[in-house]
Write a structure and sequence with these properties.
Mean pLDDT: 86
Number of strands: 0
Number of helices: 19
Structural class: mainly alpha
Largest sheet: none
CATH topology: Growth Hormone, Chain: A
Order of helices and strands: HHHHHHHHHHHHHHHHHHH
Number of domains: 1
Radius of gyration: 20 Å
Low-confidence stretches: none
CATH class: Mainly Alpha
Distance between the termini: 33 Å
């Protein structure tokens, strides 16, 4: 294959990786936008509605490593196609059920199937792009999550309000089906050394036995994901219930925030390419997350427009660490451990994310949003000293 064809192919694969991860985000993160309808019209408490909306996240947590192992063994194309197709089926079934327990189970199954995108879409991008372009490529790929959330924010609250929960869930089912078909047609697995040659190079060795670098990145990422999911899950609720906004206006703010967050992820990736490190920028971004959430907590109880502006800033800053940490994990783990390492990376994050709905729903219901935002600032502060030095810096 010529350099031109290789270059063209990698950008096609990147575009499909963005589509796959965006479809996953519409399903897994979009259910948070159903909380007001579940709370107001279904008679669920805020904590109960938050728990139901977190069901896809619970599903993701138990399947990520398995999907990663399958991607390491059989390639990304098969994993992406199968996972997104199964997610479409489960979510379509959830759209027509009338039982709340069955709805929770089907949403969990849909999230578990959609986790294939987490394990494989980033892995295929890292496999196709050279090191000096991976920050940019993974930043673009990481745009997919805020873009998926933005797409969900523009559609799902209005569908739920005007037509019911079933129609709102039909939307992510269709998106996942389209992404599955596109991946089946367009994804090409990246080249990698044959297993016998990889063994000679040490690429089959367990990277967790070489150092604690991966474990420290995982731990940092778990703590940094808490404020991200607090903002994603309860920003719409805060604007509607605490500040009296209409759902349509609040949805526009959330949508704009997600687009800005997508740009922030690309900027962070380009920054990491230029400085030749993923982990030095990660430490700076972690400090920014803590500062922004603390400022939001300080003004959340006021009627000042600054509070809404800080919410937008928090929506941008809290998503910036993901691409940096994700790229670092994939590079350190290598082509034969990348899927599993990324599965472990995301499993820890989604365990924390799954707890955000019920835990912070209870906190908000008891002591209000400002205290919840303050707690969301304290958690990532614990992760700053855990950011490891970049192995390439030591080299």
């Amino acid at each position: 294959m010529t350099d031109h064809h290789t270059s063209s192919r990698r950008w096609v694969v990147l575009g499909l990786g963005v589509l796959a991860q965006a479809a996953q985000a519409v399903l897994v993160n979009g259910t948070a936008f159903l909380i007001p309808t579940l709370h107001d019209e279904s008679g669920l408490s805020l904590a109960q509605a938050g728990t139901l909306a977190s069901a896809p996240v619970f599903g993701v947590t138990v399947t990520l490593v398995a999907w990663g192992a399958l991607a390491d063994r059989y390639g990304e194309r098969l994993v992406l196609t199968a996972g997104l197709a199964l997610a479409a089926v489960a979510t379509a079934a959830a759209a027509v059920t009338t039982s709340t327990p069955t709805l929770a189970v089907l949403l969990a199954l849909g999230g578990g199937a959609a986790a294939a995108a987490n394990a494989a879409s980033g892995r295929v991008v890292v496999g196709w792009f050279p090191p000096d372009q991976r920050g940019l490529a993974m930043g673009i790929r990481q745009m997919s999550v805020p873009l998926g959330v933005a797409l969900a924010a523009m559609t799902m609250p209005q569908l739920a309000r005007d037509h019911g929960i079933g129609w709102a869930l039909a939307f992510p089912a269709v998106v996942c089906a389209v992404a599955a078909a596109a991946c089946a047609i367009g994804i090409t697995d990246p080249p990698r050394p044959e297993r016998h040659h990889a063994a000679e190079l040490g690429l089959l060795d367990n990277p967790y036995r070489r150092s604690n670098t991966l474990l420290r990145i995982h731990a940092t990422s778990v703590l940094l994901v808490v404020p991200q999911y607090v903002v994603w899950t309860y920003a719409l609720v805060w604007l509607v219930t605490d500040r009296g906004w209409a759902e349509s206006a609040a949805g526009l703010v959330i949508t704009a925030s997600q687009f800005l967050g997508a740009g922030g992820r690309v900027a962070a990736g380009v920054w990491s390419d230029r400085v030749g490190s993923r982990l030095r920028p990660l430490r700076v971004v972690a400090v920014s997350v803590v500062t922004t959430m603390a400022a939001l907590a300080a003004v959340a109880a006021t009627d000042s427009a600054i509070a809404v502006a800080l919410l937008v800033v928090a929506s941008v800053v809290t998503v910036a660490p993901n691409g940096l940490a994700f790229t670092a994990v994939a590079e350190i783990a290598g082509p034969y451990w990348g899927g599993r390492a990324l599965g472990v990376q995301n499993t820890g994050q989604f365990v924390a994310a799954a707890a955000v709905g019920p835990v912070f729903g209870a906190v908000i219901g008891t002591v209000g949003f400002p205290v919840a935002f303050a707690v969301a600032a304290l958690v990532p502060a614990l992760g700053i000293p855990l950011v490891p030095p970049d192995p390439r810096d030591r080299a």
